[in-house]
Amino acid sequence: MNMAEPLNWEREGRDWPNREASQFIVAGSDRLRWHVQTMPRKQDATKPTVLLVHGTGAATHSWRGVMPLLAAKFNVIAVDLPGHGFSESPRTHGFSLPQMAASLSALLKAMSVAPQIVVGHSAGAAILARMCLDKMITPQHLVSLNGALLPLSGLAGEVFSPIAKVLSRSSFVPKLFAWRASDPQILRRLLDGTGSRIDAAGAALYGALIGNAQHAAAALEMMAQWDLRPLAADLPKLSECGMGITLVVGENDKTVSPNEANKVKLMLPKANIVRLPAQGHLAHEESPQQTVELIMNLRLSLSSPLAKSKHG
Description:
By secondary structure, this protein is α/β, with parallel strands linked by helices.
């Protein structure tokens, strides 16, 4: 694999998880080409739809265990965010939170999809929250999996973003990062730093992603342009969107502090916190069944007469 080239679907994607569910869709004014997975491939109009959005530096592989289990009861859609995995990097729109939200909204419009449940991991939760606030989507439930919804606090918040901006301007840095990440020991250290223990197959998939300089560049650019302060200011307004909100917290998360959920709960008193005592930042990869059961329980509430009257 040439680190300087984009990931190639016929090469790195040859053994991609749930490959049979994959398709490529062009959407938006900038004609961005997205990698999208849908289960079942032909959507069932009688079933509710769940949208799955990964976090910074990941891709659809993050949902490899979740998607097939959910597909028994739902239409399931997962995307590679712009510049991640096998989706193109934006040519005119950037990687800021509002821009990513607008790009994903354009994709959903192109697919004629209006998901009833949206599930976001880490930064993916922030994208979905922004979309809800801006009425780009009107789901019945938002699930935040170890969501990165608040700005970094203290010195880290003051230093991290400026450093990321400087690094993102260099074409050399992503290549260096990708080269270092190709070392299995470095890769394992990065994954262990999430507080999660994922299997060798999952680690190899992350290795293929972050070992690619263009994928690494997109992740770095996303971090450089990310500003969660406007979202944090608007979060209380999510209560006015008329949807359920569940904050799933891995108590061993070493990427997003488990205490963040308590701060979000103060802004959203009706939000429900679900704690996973032994799980880290990649809880949905460590234990896909746990995540699926949480969503299945939401479906039960969505199917109740009270929920039906409330939402329609």
